[in-house]
Amino acid sequence: MKYRHLVITDPAKLIFGTAPYPVKTRRGLHIGGGQVYSELNFTLPVMSINDQTLPEVYAHYRQITEGALERALQLNSKGVILEFETLLEMTKSPATGVEIVKIMNDICESFYQKHGLASEIRLTPNDLREFERPALQRTSRLLEPMFQLFEQGMLAGGDLLSIESTGGKEVSDEALMMCDIKAVLFSLAVLGVRDMQFLWEKIAALARQHGKIPAGDSACGFANTAMVLAEKKYIPTVFAALVRVISVVRSIVAMEQGAVGPDKDCAYEGPYLKAITGIPISMEGKTAACAHLSPVGNISSACADLWSNESVQNIKLLSGMAPVAYMEQLEYDVRLMNTALKKGAAYSRTLQQLLVESDVYTDAQALVLDPSNVIRISSALIQGDSYVANARNGALEFIEILEETLASGRMTLPEMELSYIPVLREELQSIPDSESDFIEMMLPLLDPSKFIPSEYGL
Amino acid sequence: MKYRHLVITDPAKLIFGTAPYPVKTRRGLHIGGGQVYSELNFTLPVMSINDQTLPEVYAHYRQITEGALERALQLNSKGVILEFETLLEMTKSPATGVEIVKIMNDICESFYQKHGLASEIRLTPNDLREFERPALQRTSRLLEPMFQLFEQGMLAGGDLLSIESTGGKEVSDEALMMCDIKAVLFSLAVLGVRDMQFLWEKIAALARQHGKIPAGDSACGFANTAMVLAEKKYIPTVFAALVRVISVVRSIVAMEQGAVGPDKDCAYEGPYLKAITGIPISMEGKTAACAHLSPVGNISSACADLWSNESVQNIKLLSGMAPVAYMEQLEYDVRLMNTALKKGAAYSRTLQQLLVESDVYTDAQALVLDPSNVIRISSALIQGDSYVANARNGALEFIEILEETLASGRMTLPEMELSYIPVLREELQSIPDSESDFIEMMLPLLDPSKFIPSEYGL
Amino acid sequence: MNYILSKLLEAVEYGKVDQGSPYPPNLKGMDGAHELTQKALDAGIMPQEILETALIPAMGNVGRKFSENKIFVPQMLMSARAMGASMAHLKPFFASGKIKARGTFVIGTVKGDLHDIGKNLVAMMVEGAGWTIVDLGVDADAESFLEALSNNPGAVVGLSALLTTTMINMGEIVEKIKENAPGTVILVGGAPVSTDFCRKIGADFYSPDPRGAVEFLKQLAS
Amino acid sequence: MNYILSKLLEAVEYGKVDQGSPYPPNLKGMDGAHELTQKALDAGIMPQEILETALIPAMGNVGRKFSENKIFVPQMLMSARAMGASMAHLKPFFASGKIKARGTFVIGTVKGDLHDIGKNLVAMMVEGAGWTIVDLGVDADAESFLEALSNNPGAVVGLSALLTTTMINMGEIVEKIKENAPGTVILVGGAPVSTDFCRKIGADFYSPDPRGAVEFLKQLAS
Ligand code: B12
Ligand code: B12
Q: Within this chain, do residues C79 and C115 fall inside the same structural domain, yes or no?
């Protein structure tokens, strides 16, 4: 791993709106530069995407963008990020995705010219490779449309580039359901890391070439999936919290390859990436209840530079279209944080303290987001000599913190959850330092029909 | 007016979660007793209500109640108010409304017995009288089903009684559109006050008889309508702010007749009622974006004892049913306030300050909700000898504050808004102290076909 | 344009009802729509021309300014009143057939629903565009729409609903109208209504605001 | 109940695959589903009885505990594996007709959609209830469902979708199935799906969770 030192060592400095290395955008947003912005995400209502419906698809994105920016303007927004996370058809036919970026960018530009409201588009193509099973991560022809969309989409105005890539997911899907922490760690710290190196080298190069911003890649298919499963009580929250920590070594590879942030919202590795690398991050919590329920509604905003709603369909509520309503909710949350920032460190620290304390002892996944725990675990995540060792050390450090917290009586967990802790620790401790030893240990245990080692350079 | 002194004179004491006269409920909620609770409101999706669909209607209310309480439980809620605001068919056939209360109350009771989660139902029948035009406020046969629903509904478990009564609306509807402040004041301080006296004497007596809680009656049809119209830029925000102040003298009549709070959410007279009478109140803001957009998303929570979402349909979002998502959003907002309350006055004061400052100078309607302005205007609202004089004095005091604020440069308003201020002041100043003089002044100016004076005892 | 007509256009656009009316302050004491219309007729200008060249363009300007948020509703209402003062003079010519209205627009808030603020605004703006309005008020059922249509054959219908439980009644009304008065054009609106819903119930046009309705009707009439 | 069968029920309920398997710790070294099924067969117990008296009730208990949030998925998966170990012994008897499965359940995530975690859980629980599973995987189109139905006449179909833009494909698949294999019972599920949507596309049953599907199938089979 490239990073050997924390950029932020003082938990008090790991705070919303402020990142050591802020990102400046074309229309003048200064992400992490002293204030928080809203990041609105949205998607289509129930409908199919085909040649007949394309005009309607475009009309939806137009309506969403206009409605959201209009509302942001009325609320004196300091600026907005609009995330365009594509659906299958928009990546498979990149022209469709590019057209949507154009539509959105024109509207962004006109609000900027007419009213001075700055907004930017985060372009997040979906990872097509998983349509082939087992996936051909490096040799698939599906990489072509994906990169076409990246390149033409950024030229059309998609200035921030992200993806939620799925390398390693072939192994993690089952591993999550079995709560097999070793297999999860293998999928993230071996397969995920290698695939991220492959993908992000390319993405960062493209972005450099066109002067765009390589933002980041969150482990949605891993950590967010684990959270949703834990929320349904399908797997222990303790396990989901560990997945989040382990994800860090996978997602940080984007930065190692040149990504500068803002990191994407949905897997919550953000605070770790911010502490270790200093990039600004996007986070989501209570105001993403439209997309999934959350055990970290407040605490997740403690270190956010962008505050996101994850995703909402363009459907009608009593007040109007849902993206407009969510734009408003985000803006009010963000206003509160920005008021505190403006009044100075004492105020923002107090607000952060309240955000943290209101959640921290209610769920293991909240504990993982406490800024002081983030710093402590981050130190463990950068000490070793391999991604594997780092992931294991971070995970064990979290178990340490969890047990301290339980012992202190500040947090309680049901027996069903507690019984997993010693098992998980034991399994983690059995993981060797070296990647090759770990691979040797794991390969015989994994279903060979599920993934192709050579597609990860193994 | 009965109240001649403020119960709260120090703006620092006018704060969320704490009311001088808290209300205790059957299942142990202590509203205004040191913590804020969520108040969830909800309604049916697009569907008709008739004999065929009744089972489906009931199923919706069952699903909403179960889903919301389940989520509240998972989030360690301290307690929840569920507002059942009826639709026409549920009041016209009170049996339907009562059945829904029963369904909801059974679920509340089972969550209380099984898990200790306390929740209560606020029963809000709709005011049927407006179906007759001009309305027969005192002699209508439609009062019968309304009061049947009140009585049988409270026996079925609707422990908190509210209504958004519409006495005076015949005059205010047009007055709002014409920005005719004198007619608005007439509709609220003369007609509204008189109708409230008539209605709330009955409601309070019924509640006393059965040991239930007469909660309150917000001027939704007046102040909330004005806000929605201002939000659409149909009328000036300055005007909408005045309507809110004037509403106070009408809504306080419920307390004069025995209502004890929590006052209802949607018209924002709450902070005034709390300052003047000491009752706990319900408020709504950013988390009501599902129901209407708002210029007071944060500041409206500054003095809230219940925090509400106004209303959301039972439709599916990506995360699940919308009422469940909104339950979650409310709970996280409330957690933040409760964490501050628990940590002591310094923290809750700081959080309140941030909530207030983040909005206060962005809209005239926000200015009206600043706790120190609330205290100042409230003093003006209780000095006179008639409701009419009080309403006028309060309104003029607000104009005073508005002009001071504008002069200080902390707030700016577009010319279109500014030009209304002197006109409104002049019109307000022309209003006499005595009700009878005012009636004599207004009657000739009003359309006699729209309302029946004798139905207001005139 | 004729000087009187241009003054009339101004009077209506700025809501000057008659000479005595105090509003707007800057036109104090000047002729209002009432006087100017009389003068125009006295000058031999054709009623149809008064309507087409002064009143409708004036209200068009008002509608535009309103939808650009440059004026508030009260200003628009004053214009509508000024137009009303003018129309009082023109009424006889409608009866005699000397003026042809753009058409008749039957509007109402549907059964079970009492929200009429939005409906009233739509009615006013459509009237401003030269249509004759038949306002069925609130809580209007299919029968009352059918009756109005039989009294005003060929009229266009507008339905308003604000409740998720009454918008469904729109469907029933549309069905009955399409059955009994086939070919009737039906517009729908109100906060919870959407294009999808409009399509689903077989209505012809949805607009989120009065302006859209006016534009649609303009094309329909031309 | 026969002692061996009650042991087998316990082994499956607690996920003991075979003697050597380390899980669950408290059954260490004891016989697992593998050995116990062999012993039951050796003792002359009828295969159908093994299935009906031990395996299905065991999985029923597991499903109940799971839906009451008393166990996590891994425990349920271990039970499914133990059941699989037992089924391996019983397979020949299905082929020979000595055991009748409850029926065949063809399940898949629909075209354009790759989300299969939910679908896999449903498949597993339906299998536990004694059905034969034909899993079409993800991104499955109408043709593949029709093919599976022609190979498994009378099978019940389950469709899963997680995207608002793929659930619409369910409609197409339902239509084609009802056309080509009329009478086929179709279940639908996945986060964005609802009872209303199920009704709208003409499918037969929606359940928000695997348990509901199992209950529905139970009634269907009886
Ligand atoms: C004002 C208001 C009232 C007033 C109505 C006054 C009046 N004379 O109309 C009063 C207080 C009486 C009232 C009563 C009730 N209300 Co109400 N009300 C509102 C409110 C706050 C604003 C509506 C409004 O006037 N908007 C301003 C106008 C200008 O906008 P508009 O109506 O949308 O119209 C515009 C467009 O839609 C369009 N348009 C409208 N009609 C048409 C028609 C055509 C043909 C076209 C082309 C365009 C078009 O053009 C208009 C101008 O731009 C809304 C909140 C909201 N978010 O809308 C709730 C709301 C509609 N009410 C609601 C409820 C529940 C009620 C009550 C049942 C409350 C109760 N329990 O007592 C009663 C029901 C009475 C009944 N049976 O109708 C709910 C509806 C929930 C649901 N299930 O759908 C809402 C959404 C409030 C909420 N968030 O909970 N209400
Ligand atoms: C995990 C996940 C993924 C994983 C999938 C892993 C896998 N192997 O399945 C990955 C990362 C690959 C992924 C990819 C994508 N995803 Co995704 N994903 C999710 C997530 C977080 C959880 C889904 C899940 O597994 N839930 C847990 C299971 C157990 O629940 P379930 O699936 O609902 O199933 C249960 C019930 O529904 C029921 N059930 C399910 N099927 C059936 C069938 C029958 C017959 C019955 C009776 C019952 C039943 O029983 C199950 C058990 O209880 C959801 C968020 C959410 N709120 O659901 C987003 C979500 C579904 N994804 C979304 C999106 C946008 C995508 C991508 C397009 C992202 C992108 N741009 O790259 C791609 C699309 C790929 C594709 N074409 O399908 C959006 C969908 C938005 C929309 N328009 O609908 C969601 C809602 C996230 C969000 N909030 O934005 N995703």
A: no
Please answer yes or no on whether B318 and D194 come within 8 Å at the CB atom. Answer: no
Q: Mean pLDDT in chain B?
A: 97
Least distant ligand from the CA of D187: 2
Paired strand residues for A30? A24
C19, with CB counted inside 10 A (0-12, 13-18, 19+), is: middle
With CB atoms and an 8 Å threshold, state whether A416 touches D71.
yes
* Residue A207 identity (one-letter amino acid): A
User: In a mutational test of the pocket of ligand 1, which residue from C68, C77, C113, C115 has the highest number of ligand atoms less than 8 Å from its CB?
Assistant: C115
Q: How many CA atoms lie within 13 A of A98 on its CB side?
A: 16
Q: Which of B120, B187, B125 is nearest to B456 (CA)?
A: B187
Is 0.90 topped by the overall pTM? yes
Are D89 and D130 in a shared domain?
Answer: no
Q: Which residue has the higher pLDDT, C25 or B250?
A: B250
Q: Which residues of B touch C (CB under 8 A)?
A: 43-49, 87-89, 130-131, 133, 173, 176-179, 225, 229, 233-236, 313, 416
Please tell me the predicted confidence (pLDDT) of residue C25.
Answer: 85
**Among B43, B350, B362, whose Cβ lies nearest the Cβ of A347?**
B350
Q: How confident is the model at residue C222 (pLDDT cuts 50, 70, 90)?
A: low
- Does residue D222 surpass a pLDDT of 70? no
- Residue ranges per structural domain of chain B: 11-456
Q: Kindly report, residue by residue over B244-294, the tens digit of the pLDDT.
A: 999 999 999 999 999 999 999 988 999 999 999 999 999 999 999 999 999
Domain count, chain C: 2
Contact A68, A82 (CB under 8 A): yes
| Domain encompassing residue C162 | 104-221
Residues D68, D157: one domain?
Answer: no
Indicate which residue's Cα is closest to atom 28 of ligand 1: C118
Are residues C186 and C83 part of one domain? no
State the pairing for strand pair B18-24/B30-33: antiparallel
Residue C133, CB-side half-sphere exposure with 13 Å CA sphere: 22
Domain match, C92 and C108 both: no
Tell me the residue type at C162.
L
- Distance CA(A20)–CA(B33), nearest Å, equals 43
Which ligand 2 atom is nearest residue A41's CA? Answer: 90
Three-class SS state of B40 = strand
Q: Choose the closest CB to C73 out of B43, B225, B235.
A: B235
Chain B contact set for C116 (CB, 8 A): 173
Q: How confident is the model at residue D98 (pLDDT cuts 50, 70, 90)?
A: confident
- Angle, in degrees to the nearest 10, between helices A322-343 and A345-359: 130
Q: Domain holding D53: CATH number?
A: 1.10.1240.10
- Cis ω before A134 (30° cut-off from 0): yes
Same domain, D136 and D50: no
ipTM: 0.94
